[in-house]
Amino acid sequence: MAGNWELDEAKSQTGRGRAGGPGPSRLILKMSPTEVTVTSDTGVNRARETTVYKLNAPEHEVPGPLSWNSVAKSTWESDKFVATIARIIEGPNGPVRIEMKDVYSVDGDVLTIERTQGVMTWKSVFNRR
Length: 129
Hints:
Structural class: mainly beta
């Protein structure tokens, strides 16, 4: 799973039903026994964002939108890396928590990320660079 990946737009889901907005077009994945590091392009001025997911640890802070408290829990399920990201913001009636689940799986030189958020789902497919 570790390596450099580039989005295959023809095989990726876009448009309606997409959870979490547009995804990155390039990823760099690094693995260690205790964490998975995902570096992705943001699509803005060649900026990159790096998220470190701590495996089998309590919820921990990860990057997210301004004004939101973003935390994640992550683990390996079979041969898939699973990260559950929660974004929490103070609403008029108290905190509002929105969860997304990203499942990363690799088949040869193809990385697939399936994201679910509520009833919405989307899939991004990447090829090894």
